[in-house]
Design goal:
Distance between the termini: 68 Å
Number of helices: 25
Radius of gyration: 27 Å
Mean pLDDT: 94
Helix content: 40-55%
Oligomer: single chain
Largest sheet: 5 strands, mixed
Structural class: alpha/beta
Shape: globular
Number of strands: 19
Low-confidence stretches: none
Strand content: 5-15%
């Protein structure tokens, strides 16, 4: 690969790549993000390659291994172009039919199309699927169009045009002003204005400055940062290069979870390719600007997502937060001025430089600009990664993009912002999603986690689950977080066992208040949010556990019992076979009997019964 010595050479090289790519050939893109790969996507790719070779049409049809397309519920996904024909849940045994029917005869394989769960309609093209056509995919725009390990693919889609624009005609001040004017806020959770952060680092004194990417995504159910790094690593790298140019940095790091091997691999390949082309390293594109970075693999501690803990970890110390008397932009990594942004923030920067701050300003709400990527999971039909403009309502996101609640059940609540966020009830379903509105109701945007819950979810149990996570991940450095979290968790465990008292509710609020005021870092300050929001919006559930010793959702094991309805039981015997403790007995074709003393409340009988004869009380 030749080293490019000027923006003009980059443009010439891009033109040669485009010329080669403009063959108009048919292509089969297979989503090979971590989710689809786990479902067999790599075997699907191999099947395509083998069959195309056998049939002698390999030269006319290209096979692309792409990053995450976002629609994880329907994976592995196969996109056939031209035409953008989307096939869902493709298996190796489906490949021959796709090759025969679509690639050879030009016909659609009807049975592999997406079926709308509401209308029952089969949809042919990707852009017509409601999951996609309601979104505004800017960061994810090219994930399904390019091979992430091919820098030429990125270049052919306009990659590194923003860096070229900066090096050709902008000085650091102009870059910072453009980011400030865009009003981009950090997508890692805090929502701090990115341009303001850059400006503080730019004006800070010191010859050595660092630019860091926080890719330590540890929230349960969150995987958007991982998917961006896996599917479009050069976009993040280009954003970091622009940031480094703006603040005057020559060195940097990306701190990424070791549990993200594909992200580490693809980003490392991107670094090597960029260095070879002269887009990273000394005198980038022949300019005076030099910047290089290293990959640091994190050990998987949730607290290392906090900026000061992350910096300590890079320094080789224990990943614990520290008091922030001075901002990292003045004294960060090794006490040098440091800019730290997360993956989504860096990935947004090239878009703003290319299209302008005015364009970005028109997207979103008055105070929250641009798009946000949410990991939509839980009891919803269409799970996956969703990129939407700030300000979209929960209703649009869950019912139009998400396709509504699984099994037609009733929507109960949604948890936003990960384990430190809050639970939002049904009466707030029309709430617009932005930093301010979510904070007003006790939750937050956070890193973009979003877990949908139906009416079979116990909100006390949910609060216990999230608090147990944050308690487990607390570094234990400060007393309010270490002791407060543990004590709150014990109280919640007692309530779900039927041992709670009314005064426990006041005690929970008192401890939560102390943690919010006195904890050292955001982990401790925000950990009480799930408890406080469930207490606020679902007080009747707490009271049912405390006063009636019942769990209305039928979840808390110590407060429920399974019953067999003799009128519905046909005596089929399936529940007898499924019961691990032989608690169910009975003759064939006669109502069965469940011995409560032997029942361990595993729910196997209820899951396997075809006649709804098992109920929970």
């Amino acid at each position: 690969m030749m080293k490019l010595n000027s923006p003009a050479e980059l443009e010439k090289y891009r033109s040669s790549v485009l010329e080669k790519n403009n063959s108009g050939e048919t292509s089969v893109s297979v989503c090979c993000g971590t989710g689809c790969s786990a479902s067999g996507a790599l075997d699907v790719v191999s099947a395509f390659q083998r069959l195309l070779e056998e049939k002698g049409i390999q030269a006319d049809v290209g096979t692309k291994i792409t990053g995450c397309h976002g629609f994880c519920e329907q994976g592995p996904l196969v996109l056939v172009s031209p035409g953008n024909i989307l096939y869902c849940q493709v298996r190796t045994e489906d490949v021959e039919e796709i090759v025969q029917e679509t690639l050879t005869a030009g016909r659609i394989v009807d049975r592999l199309l997406y079926v709308d769960p509401i209308t029952g309609e089969k949809i042919e093209k990707e852009e017509q699927v409601p999951f996609y056509n309601k979104q505004l995919r800017l960061i994810f725009e090219n994930n399904g169009k390019m091979v992430p390990t091919e820098i030429n693919d990125y270049l052919s889609l306009g990659g590194y045009c923003a860096l070229e624009k900066v090096l050709k005609g902008m000085d650091p001040r102009e870059v910072i002003e453009e980011i400030k004017n865009s009003r981009l806020r950090g997508r890692g959770g805090g929502g701090f204005p990115t341009g303001q952060k850059w400006e503080s680092c730019y004006t800070a004194s010191g010859d050595i400055k660092y630019v860091i990417c926080n890719a330590d995504e540890g929230d349960p159910g969150c995987f958007q940062d991982r998917s961006i790094l896996e599917g479009n690593p050069h976009l993040v790298l280009e954003g970091m290069l622009i940031g480094a140019f703006a603040v005057g940095s020559t060195q940097g790091y990306i701190y990424v979870r070791n549990e993200y091997p594909l992200a580490v691999k693809n980003f490392s390949i991107a670094l090597r390719q960029a260095r070879e082309l002269g887009l990273l390293g000394e005198n980038i594109l022949g300019s005076d600007f030099s910047y290089d970075l290293k990959v640091i693999r994190g050990g998987g501690a949730f607290v290392c997502g906090e900026s000061s803990a992350l910096i300590s970890s890079i320094e080789g110390k224990i990943g614990e937060p520290r008091y922030k008397f001075v901002h990292a932009t003045e004294k960060g990594l090794w006490d040098r001025p440091t800019v730290l942004n997360n993956v989504k923030t860096w990935a947004t920067v090239p878009l703003i430089i290319n299209r302008g701050s005015g364009w970005f300003n028109e997207i979103g709400t008055q105070q929250s600009k641009g798009t946000m990527i949410f990991s939509l999971t839980g009891k919803v039909n269409n799970t996956g990664l969703v990129e939407v403009p700030m300000g979209i309502s929960l209703r649009e996101l869950i019912f139009e993009i998400g396709g509504g609640i699984l099994g037609g059940k009733k929507f109960k609540a949604v948890q936003t912002g990960g384990p430190s966020g809050g639970c939002i009830p049904e009466e707030l379903i029309d709430l617009p999603l932005d930093y301010e509105k979510l904070t007003e109701v006790g939750s937050m945007v956070g890193s973009g986690g979003m877990i949908v819950m139906d009416d079979t979810t116990c909100m006390v149990d949910v609060a216990k689950y999230f608090l147990s996570f944050t308690q487990e991940e607390s570094c234990g450095k400060c007393v309010p977080c270490r002791e407060g979290g543990e004590h709150m968790l014990k109280i919640l465990e007692g309530i779900t066992r039927g041992e709670g008292e009314e005064r426990d509710l006041d005690l929970l609020k008192e401890i939560a208040d102390t943690m919010q005021c006195a904890s050292l870092c955001a982990l401790g300050k925000l950990a009480p949010n799930p408890v406080l929001t469930t207490l606020k919006y679902f007080p009747e559930e707490y009271m049912a556990h405390i006063k009636d010793k019942k769990c209305p959702a039928g979840v808390c094991r110590e407060l429920i019992k399974y019953l067999i309805d003799p009128d519905s039981c046909t005596g089929c015997g399936r529940c007898i076979k499924a019961c691990p403790t032989e608690a169910i007995t009975g003759e064939k074709e006669a109502p069965h009997i469940l011995n409560q003393d032997q029942c361990i409340k595993c729910g196997n009988c209820m899951d396997i019964c075809r006649f709804n004869a098992i109920t929970v009380e």
